[in-house]
Automatic annotation (TrEMBL), chain A:
Regions of compositional bias (Pro residues) in chain numbering: 231-242
Region Disordered: start-end pairs: 215-250
Chief place where the protein resides: membrane
InterPro entries listed in its UniProt record: ABC_transp_perm/SBD, MetI-like, MetI-like_sf
Residue ranges of domain ABC transmembrane type-1 in the record: 24-203
Record-linked Pfam families: BPD_transp_1
Family: Belongs to the binding-protein-dependent transport system permease family.
Positions in coiled-coil regions: none
Official protein name in the record: ABC transporter permease subunit
Keywords, in A-Z order: Membrane, Transmembrane, Transmembrane helix, Transport
Residues that span the membrane, as ranges: 28-51, 72-98, 150-174, 186-206
Subcellular locations according to the entry: Cell membrane; Membrane
Membrane topology: Multi-pass membrane protein
UniProtKB/TrEMBL annotation, chain B:
Signal peptide, first to last residue: none
Topology versus the membrane: Multi-pass membrane protein
Domain ABC transmembrane type-1: 17-200
Listed Gene3D superfamilies: MetI-like
Domain of life, source organism: Bacteria
Organism lineage: Bacteria, Bacillati, Actinomycetota, Actinomycetes, Pseudonocardiales
Principal subcellular localization: membrane
Localization, UniProt: Cell membrane; Membrane
Similarity comment text for this entry: Belongs to the binding-protein-dependent transport system permease family.
Coiled coil: none
Name of this chain's protein: ABC transporter permease subunit
Transmembrane segments: 21-43, 55-75, 82-98, 134-161, 181-202
Keyword terms of this UniProt record: Membrane, Transmembrane, Transmembrane helix, Transport
One Pfam family linked to the record: BPD_transp_1
Length: 250, 216
C-alpha cells in the first residue's frame, strides 16, 4: 500500500508523454472516439427498429450475441489484420459500445407509452416528428442508461489496449506486469477503477439533468392528478443497472 | 492456409475449453449462493437495500483487468493464481445478482406470502418453497447476463496468465497467427450460446406454472 502511495505521489509519474495526465488523456480519447462511433451505428438502428416496432427480436438477439464477444480476442485479431493503429483499437472498442446503446435505444423507443404515440399522430405529427419529438425524448432515460453501460464497458476495455502496444492507462498495468513492478501495476489498476467510477457518476448526474421532469417519477400518472401539486420526488431513483440497460433481456 | 492447425491442436483446445468453463461458471455458482441471502436481506429491509444495491453497482463498475491485478494485494494470493480470476468473477456475479434477487423477492405478491404464512409455513420454509421459486424467472435473467459476461471476461485473465481460451488470443497475437485468435473467439461465442440456452431451459423446467394459463 505504501509503495502504491509513493508511486502515485512521485512527481516524475505526473509529467511527460508517459505520465499519468498524458495516459489519462489517451485513455479518454480512445473511449470518446469509440463511443461516438458506436453511437453513430447503434442509435439510428435502435430508434428506427423501435419506432417501426418490428424486428426487435433481431436487435435484442444481436445485442446479446455481441455482448459475449471477448474483447481481448477482438482487439488482438483486428490489430493483427490491420496493423497497430488508432483504427483497429477504436473499432474494437466501438463494437463493445454497440450492444448496450442498441438495446437501450431500442427498448427505450419501443416501450414509450403507445397512448402518447397515438396522441402525437392524432395531433397531426408526421412519423419523423413522432420519433424526434415524442419517442426519443421519452426514451431518453433508457438511452442514457445504455450510454452509461457502454461508457463503462469501453473505459474498462481501453485498459486492455495497452497489450497491443497502445497507450492509455492500461500501459501502467501491462508494463508493470511485464517488469514485475507491482506498485506501478496497482497504481494503474486504481487509476482505471477511479476513472470508471468518476465517469459513471458524471453520467448519472447528466442523466438526471437531461431527462424531462415528467419522466422522472417512473410509472404512469394521470395528467390531472398532478395539477396544482407537484408529484412527490421518487423515493429511490436507483441507478440503472450498470452495463445492463433495462429490457436488454427478451 | 493453416486450417489444419485446428485438428492438430484439438487436445489443447479441449483442455483450454474445460479450463474456461470452470473459470467462468464456478464463480456463477458461488455468486448465486452468496447473492441469495444478501438479496434476501436487501429485499426485507429498506435501509439495507439502500446500502447493498448501490454498493453492488459500484463493485460491478471496477474494470476486470484492474480487479484481477489488485486482488492479490487484498486477499494475499500470488499474482498469477487462477483464484484471482475466480474471486473477481464471483464478485461481479454477486454484484449483478444481488439486485436481481432483491427486486425479484420484493415483487412476490404480499397476498401469496400471507397465504403461505396462513397455511403454516415458517419464514425459512416459506422462503425456500414459495418466495424463491417465484423469483426464479428474474433470477434466471440475472444468471444469464452473469454467465455470458463471465465467459467473455475470463479471456482477459490471459493477460495475467490465467485465461482459459483467452490464452489463444495472447499466444496468437505473439505468433502473428490470426486463425488461432479467431478459433478462440468462435469457441467463446459458442460456449456463451450453449450456456445461455441451458439457463433458459433450466428456467423453463423449474417454473412449470408460468406456462399454465398462457395457452388457455
Amino acid at each position: 500500500m505504501n509503495a502504491l502511495f509513493s508511486w502515485l505521489t512521485d512527481p516524475a509519474h505526473w509529467s511527460g508523454s508517459a505520465g499519468i495526465p498524458a495516459r489519462l488523456g489517451e485513455h479518454l480519447w480512445y473511449s470518446v472516439l469509440a463511443l461516438a462511433l458506436g453511437a453513430v451505428v447503434a442509435l439510428p438502428i435502435g430508434a428506427l427498429v423501435g419506432h417501426g416496432r418490428r424486428g426487435g427480436f433481431l436487435v435484442v438477439g444481436t445485442a446479446n450475441g455481441l455482448r459475449a464477444l471477448p474483447e481481448l480476442g477482438l482487439l488482438t485479431l483486428l490489430v493483427l489484420l490491420m496493423g497497430i493503429g488508432l483504427l483497429p483499437v477504436t473499432l474494437a472498442l466501438a463494437v463493445l459500445a454497440i450492444p448496450p446503446l442498441l438495446a437501450g435505444t431500442y427498448s427505450g423507443v419501443r416501450n414509450v407509452d403507445p397512448g402518447a404515440v397515438d396522441a402525437a399522430r392524432g395531433m397531426g405529427m408526421r412519423e419523423p416528428q413522432v420519433l424526434f419529438k415524442v419517442e426519443l425524448p421519452n426514451a431518453l432515460p433508457l438511452i442514457l442508461g445504455g450510454l452509461r453501460s457502454a461508457a463503462l464497458q469501453v473505459i474498462a476495455t481501453a485498459a486492455v489496449a495497452a497489450y497491443v502496444s497502445f497507450g492509455g492507462l492500461g500501459r501502467f498495468l501491462i508494463d508493470g506486469l511485464r517488469t514485475r513492478d507491482y506498485p506501478q501495476m496497482a497504481a494503474g489498476a486504481v487509476l482505471v477503477a477511479v476513472l470508471a467510477l468518476v465517469v459513471e457518476g458524471l453520467l448519472a448526474l447528466l442523466q438526471r439533468a437531461v431527462v424531462s421532469p415528467g419522466l422522472r417519477g417512473g410509472g404512469r400518472r394521470s395528467p390531472t392528478a398532478t395539477v396544482g401539486r407537484p408529484a412527490p420526488a421518487p423515493a429511490d431513483p436507483d441507478p440503472v443497472p450498470v452495463r445492463e440497460p433495462a429490457g436488454a433481456e427478451p | 492456409m493453416a486450417w489444419e492447425w485446428i485438428p492438430r491442436n484439438l487436445g489443447m483446445l479441449g483442455g483450454l475449453l474445460v479450463e474456461h468453463v470452470v473459470l467462468a461458471l464456478v464463480p456463477v455458482l458461488i455468486g448465486l449462493v452468496l447473492a441469495v441471502p444478501i438479496g434476501w436481506a436487501a429485499a426485507g429491509n429498506r435501509v439495507l437495500r439502500a446500502v447493498l444495491v448501490p454498493a453492488a453497482s459500484v463493485l460491478y463498475t471496477i474494470p476486470s483487468l484492474a480487479l484481477f491485478i489488485v486482488l492479490p494485494a487484498i486477499i494475499g494470493t500470488r499474482i498469477l493464481d487462477p483464484l484471482n480470476v475466480v474471486v473477481a468473477l464471483t464478485i461481479y456475479t454477486v454484484a449483478l445478482l444481488v439486485r436481481s434477487v432483491a427486486d425479484a423477492l420484493a415483487a412476490v405478491p404480499s397476498l401469496v406470502v400471507a397465504a403461505a404464512t396462513a397455511m403454516g409455513y415458517r419464514p425459512g420454509r416459506r422462503f425456500v418453497s414459495v418466495e424463491l421459486p417465484l423469483a426464479v424467472p428474474v433470477l434466471i435473467a440475472g444468471l444469464r447476463v452473469a454467465a455470458v459476461s463471465n465467459i467473455s471476461l475470463v479471456s482477459v485473465g490471459a493477460l495475467i496468465g490465467v485465461g482459459g481460451l483467452g490464452q489463444l488470443f495472447t499466444d496468437g497475437y505473439q505468433r502473428d497467427f490470426p486463425l488461432e485468435i479467431l478459433t478462440g473467439i468462435v469457441l467463446i461465442l459458442l460456449l456463451a450460446l450453449v450456456v445461455d440456452g441451458l439457463l433458459v431451459l433450466i428456467g423453463r423446467i423449474s417454473t412449470p406454472w408460468t406456462r399454465v394459463g398462457a395457452t388457455a
